[in-house]
Design goal:
The chain has 180 residues and is of the alpha/beta class. It has one domain: Alpha/Beta hydrolase fold, catalytic domain (Rossmann fold, 3-Layer(aba) Sandwich). Helices cover 33% and strands 20% of the residues. It has a 7-stranded mixed beta sheet, sandwiched between helices. The longest helix has 21 residues. The mean pLDDT is 90.
Length: 180
């Protein structure tokens, strides 16, 4: 089991080396736990042993199924599901922030399943990653890990983005700048 960092806990499911990029982003802000087990009861016991009662759950594929079951059991404060089949009883999910990420070209769990799931979870946010299949952790980790981090930073930690000094001026060019 991986257990690194301090602060509010986030649980990544399943145990997979592809999470390393996300762990690197989360660790300075949160306590990152990656259980080796996929059994909900065993994970719950491990979290209690670690003194973790509330947490964010991030699940990919079947790990997302486990994350949904954990959320249905209580303790989950924010849920991130990545290319995940829908668990039975998801309509009974407590009112909590849910971020859904899907590869637009996912043939294992099609993007239409993500859209259907988003329709069942009021207030959820769905992002489709263009040109990406099912294994978004490997195919697009560099793109999705910052999205997951930003979602957790804002919705789970409740922390502002960091532009407290005022708005940032952005200039949109409609034609190339003139050269001197």
């Amino acid at each position: 089991m991986i257990d690194r960092g301090e602060g509010p806990a986030v649980v990544l499911l399943p145990s997979d080396a592809a999470w390393q990029g996300l762990i690197h982003l989360l660790e300075p802000w949160m306590r990152v736990v990656v259980p080796e087990e996929t059994d909900v009861a065993v994970i719950g016991e491990e979290l209690r042993r670690l003194g973790i009662e509330e947490f964010a759950a991030v699940g990919f594929d079947e790990g997302g199924w486990v994350a949904q079951e954990l959320a249905l059991g209580g303790g989950v404060r924010t849920l991130v599901l990545i290319g995940t089949p829908e668990a039975p009883g998801i309509e009974a999910l407590p009112d909590l922030p849910v971020f859904l990420l899907w590869g637009e070209d996912d043939e294992v769990v099609p993007a239409a399943d993500g859209e259907r799931l988003a329709g069942k979870l009021p207030g959820s946010t769905l992002a489709l990653i263009p040109g990406c299949g099912h294994d978004v952790l490997s195919e697009a980790g560099d793109a999705i890990f910052p999205l997951v981090f930003e979602y957790l930073r804002a919705r789970y930690l409740g922390r502002k983005h960091g532009h407290e000094r005022g708005p940032v001026k952005i200039e949109i060019l409609t034609s190339p700048p003139e050269r001197p």
